[in-house]
Amino acid sequence: MQNSDIVEVKGTPNADWKWPCYEEWFSRETFRLERRKKGKSDQQDSPFKIIYSVNRDTLQKTFVEFGFQSLIVILQNIIPDNSSIFDKKPKINAQDLYHVMEKLCIKNAELEKTSNLTDEKMYLNSLIKFLEQEYEETDKLRTRMFNNNVVSFDMLWVVYTKKLPVFYTCKMSGQWLCGIISSAYESFDHRIQQRVFFINIKVIDYDGVGFKHCNINRKIGYFEGEVDFTALPVMPTQFCKVKNQLTKIIAENGKKFFELASGRHFKNYNGSLLRWKVVANCLQVEKMNADGRAMIDLESFAVMNPDYNMGNSLPPNKCDVELLANNGVYLEKDKIHNENNYLLAPAVVYGFSFALKEWGQFEVSKFMDIQFDKEALDYLVIPQNKKNIIKGLVKQYVEPNKMIKGNGLDLIRKKGDGCILLCYGPPGTGKTLTAESVAEFLERPLWMLSVHELGTDPKALERQLVKILDIAYAWKSVLLLDEADIYLEKRNTTDLNRNMMVGIFLRLLEYYQGVLFLTTNRVVNFDDAIRSRISVFLQYPKFSLNERHEVWTNFIRRAGLSLKADDFIKYELNGREIRNVVNIAQKLAQDSGEDLNADLVINIIETVQGFQQEMDECKNI
């Protein structure tokens, strides 16, 4: 700004000087702002003018336009964040000046004591006098409303000021959060033809690079009369009746957010998976019960959901990271962990629910550590030599010091380094349970896949499988592809689509470096090339009498039932059917509060077998 651009008022100050007032509007005839003077003024060039602006939304705003250089310099020091004060002819919203009335009065008192500049003193005093007259009723209303913890829509601008701590609700979880107002203003919503009040709130979030300062926006819709502050979606903390309790909860959850948001964390979750969903062209929050295990991983979420609106959490482009860092957006690492930052944290993190096999957002307050079942492999009813082979193969993937040194046996690096196990045999013989038990033994996630997630279109299969294999390896998870027949069948000269699927699957399988279980009920149609990709083939025949006895014993013991396996081993049930029978028996025992007898369990077995017999008869028709 050049000093020559400012109209410098000359002449002896007049103690009775009255600021000139103008009406301003946008003319649809001339397509420009028009002004008309209100009242009389003897002075053409004034230290400041009052502009009453009315726009087409019928929102009247009052501005102060300055033409006195010394007064402008004073205001530049008091409201440096207001960019308008550095314009050629500064035009400042009078509400912004009202918010700094205390600072203006302090500066005026300093001038009275120390300055001989008569012009400065008089015009600053005149500005204060205007603000006092303009907002005399506002001050009275403010005092009354604050005493009664209520506010009207017209008074929102008085309350919601910059740097004010507020509580607001999370759009995803509905929980109360804390933030600091960075700006607030009234506007007109043409869609609903109504006034609205917008509030920008300073918070902290994580974007995959670091924890950063950012803003979220909230709005308060128009309302009649006066309402309690607690009824508004954004509430000044000073008017909250349970401020201390709420602050404590928010700080505790914020600390959890700072612990969980960065990196990858495998946790148990007891709550709902949350995500945005478009319903009738409107965004709505979809909630699904997601009790079970989950992986918190923002970066993988962004990879798998490129079109999802992640807001401030969206990982930035590489070219933007340096710019953000240079602008001081990111928190310094040694200043991250303190309660002031915890209070500004979100309530949710991004990740994957293994129970639902869905990506979404999770409430930080509902995570717990996982209690792994280290004895799961011991309960697996397969020959001990098979258990030893499985343990020996998979342990190297969690114990780096036991990894074979060197470049491997393949000439091409990272080729053939994975642990691929193919489990084949009839249903209910322990194939899936083997993968589950290995995941428990390794204390790793079990990621179960099916044709539904991967699809049968070759191009889509390759895109999806590449992402999944990369993420699964990063998570050190145990992958389980159940009923993988469609990707392993022998290629032929007629079905080109299937040939492409099999080729893609085998190629990606060869370069996977993690633990992968494939299960199938049949092996007769497998492609010849599958043999070279599999580390171990594990056969699961039907249970012998002794094996069935062991399965019954294991399930009865784990369910805490006072039953004997000898009473049931004559029934030719597979492992899945035995588990279902014991599960039903356990629920009946819990409901009755008494021990169950063998006869009731046998009734359950015969019901299961009766249905199976009907199915077998239908197949033979």
UniProtKB/TrEMBL annotation:
Sorted UniProt keywords: Hydrolase
Keyword field contains Lipoprotein: no
Annotated ranges, domain AAA+ ATPase: 416-544
Molecular functions per Gene Ontology: ATP binding; ATP hydrolysis activity
Domain of life where this protein originates: Eukaryota
KW Glycoprotein (keyword) present: no
Name assigned to this protein: P-loop containing nucleoside triphosphate hydrolase protein
Cited InterPro entries: AAA+_ATPase, ATPase_AAA_core, DUF7025, P-loop_NTPase
